[in-house]
Amino acid sequence: YPSEFLVQKITEENQIPVHLHVSVSLQYVAGLKGSALVEFFHGNIAEVENEELRHLMWSSVLFYKTPNVEVMACVLLSTKAVYFLLDDSFVHADEHQSDFWNKENSDCENSSFHLSCCFVLKLNDLQSVNVGLFDQYFRITGHSADHIVTCLTRDSYNTHTFIQQLMAVLSLLARTPSPEPVDKDFYSEFGSKNTGKMENYELIHSSRVKFIYPNEEEIGDLAFLVAEKMDGLTNLPSLNILLYVLAFQVNHVEGSAQNTSSLQPKTLILTSSDLFLFDEDYISYPLPEFAKEPPKRDKYQLTDGRRIRDLDRVLMGYQTYPQALTFVFDDVQNQDLMQNLTLDHFGE
User: Fold this and answer.
1) Which residues pair with 173 in a beta bridge?
2) 0.70 exceeded by the pTM?
3) Which residues, 6+ apart, have CB-to-CB distance to 44 below 8 Å?
4) What are the residues facing 300 on neighbouring strands?
5) Span 216-240, mean pLDDT?
6) What per-residue confidence (pLDDT) applies to 191?
7) Less Cβ crowding at N or C end of the chain, within 10 Å?
8) 6-10, 97-101, 112-116: which has the minimum mean pLDDT?
9) CATH architecture assigned to 217-329
């Protein structure tokens, strides 16, 4: 153990996305190759001796207890648990959550020893996995608020690969079987549904973990919300969401030593007439079973919206993925100026 193919595959996956910055400790992990990576896992992360490392992925993650802090993590999937090796800057990012993270080793901060926090979610504690719209992210839910993590892969391929690997590993778990369901006849099973729509695309794995996928109503709800933000300028039936993508808005920070740019996570939605940027809550919805009250903020909050017909030009960077796009709009304060002039000129 492990096979050469698996070692090679994990080595290939051990690459930090170029646009995201990580601490020295995670850069060290990203520099490990081949058997050194497997040895590092067994020597520093694995909790039991006989667990196998099956998959590695770099992703931004959000925790239910700290919904506003997105942090870079190396996600390691073994036959026993999912490990999130976190950027050490996260521990100090939110002072209110000091009880969430154990700070015993704070005396190591000023030495040359680089510390990383590792958050462990045991597969036996896993209850459900919610896959986001268009596989841009997924949320893993355990038995309490401390055990809810969203991975913002921003990449359908990475999401799909991780879910496939997770299902394969869960199949190895020896869980007590569910009690036998009461036999229902065909008509009572399928006859009570009045609509042709499925209530939820829900797959219950043999390990009893639920995999929940968004249904078509979620897109309908999103289209309705977008139409609301457009102040009724278009009729809802003709409104089509052409693109939904998790992206970053680039804000240039001037005055620093070198003009750096900070990346603000945004949800970009393109319709046939408008381009929208939303702040989206990726961690609180759908509500976990133990939630006593709804989240403090809505799932989608509009931050910017522009009409496509006001788009002047699109500038494209020449770097490799991820691609940078700059949208230049005509800066007209009163969007309907010409229309109003026309009405006044030609009368009723």
Assistant:
1) none
2) yes
3) none
4) 280
5) 74
6) 47
7) C
8) 97-101
9) Roll (2.30)
Of 31, 283, 329, 45, nearest to 150 by C-alpha is 283
What ranges make up the beta strands (E) of the chain?
53-63, 66-78, 81-86, 117-122, 128-131, 138-141, 148-152, 201-204, 210-213, 241-253, 260-271, 274-280, 300-307, 311-316, 325-329
CB 325 within 8 A of CB 316: yes
Question: What is the C-alpha to C-alpha distance for residues 236 and 232, in angstroms, rounded to an integer?
Answer: 8
* Phi, psi for residue 11 in degrees, rounded to 5: -65, -45
Going by pLDDT thresholds of 50, 70 and 90, the confidence category of residue 338 is very low
Predicted pLDDT at 335:
53
- 3-state class of 221 per DSSP? helix
Count CB-CB contacts under 10 A for residue 87: 22
pLDDT tens digits, 18-76: 877 888 889 999 999 999 999 999 999 999 888 999 999 999 999 998 888 899 999 99
Radius of gyration of the chain from Cα atoms? 24
Say whether 217-329 and 4-173 share the same fold: yes
What residue segments make up the domains of the chain, in order of their start? 4-173, 217-329
Going by pLDDT thresholds of 50, 70 and 90, the confidence category of residue 340 is: very low
CA pair distance 25, 14, nearest whole angstrom: 14
Q: Are strands 128-131 and 210-213 parallel, antiparallel or unpaired?
A: parallel
Q: Are 72 and 60 in contact (CB under 8 A)?
A: yes
> What is the rounded distance in angstroms from the CA atom of residue 117 to the CA atom of residue 290?
26
CA neighbor of 71 nearest in space, from 91, 45, 55: 91
Of 147, 174, 193, 158, the C-alpha closest to 289 is 147
Q: How far is CA 61 from CA 86, 87, 227, 314, in A?
A: 9, 10, 30, 30
The 10s digit of each residue's pLDDT in 272-300 is 888 999 999 999 988 888 888 888 888 99
Q: Which CATH class is domain 4-173?
A: mainly beta
